[in-house]
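User: For a reading group we're discussing how well predicted structures match intuition. Take GAF domain-containing protein. Before you show the prediction, I'll give you the sequence so everyone sees exactly what went in.
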Amino acid sequence: MPVLKIQDYLQTQGLRLPKDMVHMSYLAVQAVMNVGHASIDRSVLWYADDEVVLSNYFEQDDDNEALLKQVFMALDSVFSRTDKAANATVYALRPSENNHLCLLRLAQQGEHVEQKMTVDEEHSRFYLPVRTAQTGWLNLVDDVDSWLELDELQGEHHSRSRSQISLPVCTDSGAVLGVVHVEYQDKEALNEETQAEWVALSLALSQPLSELLKVELSENNDD
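Assistant: Thanks. Here is the predicted 3D structure of GAF domain-containing protein, as structure tokens, for the group to look at:
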């Protein structure tokens, strides 16, 4: 991941994080994705519950399984080494059964949260990841209670957290491939170092998500 791409992401999202900090975090995530040898049960990768059966959305073959494993290991590595989040989820943006866009959970750590969300104006009032998927903008909420009071967020499910961040996973041209969403039980939990870790994860996930969704990551495709 060239430093210029990190700089572009930070500038686009209005983040004043040290590029070197993000770069080091990115290299750590890449190392896990490229050389990790964790044994992950197939029922975890290809999960099936009341909301979603993942194999209904992605072909259950070796290539996709390897990509899902990369996503899982990358999320697990950041979740494990940052200040403890209540939950963290990687979503892919793709059409659902009725061809409406939805966010579909690929991997999750911590508390069980939404597995699938329709991406539309109605749901953007209730779910920060939907808002990020629609706009391509990172959303950071340091005080959930304040946002609820101001009607910037709606929904009883927000009682489970006090801070949230939703980060877009994008192609080089800025098209949204998915969203990384993280929740904390404390206000103002997302310090500079923690933000850098989640930004690095979002950048690292662009490759496996683009392959899963069969979308070109870059025009030159040389990264």
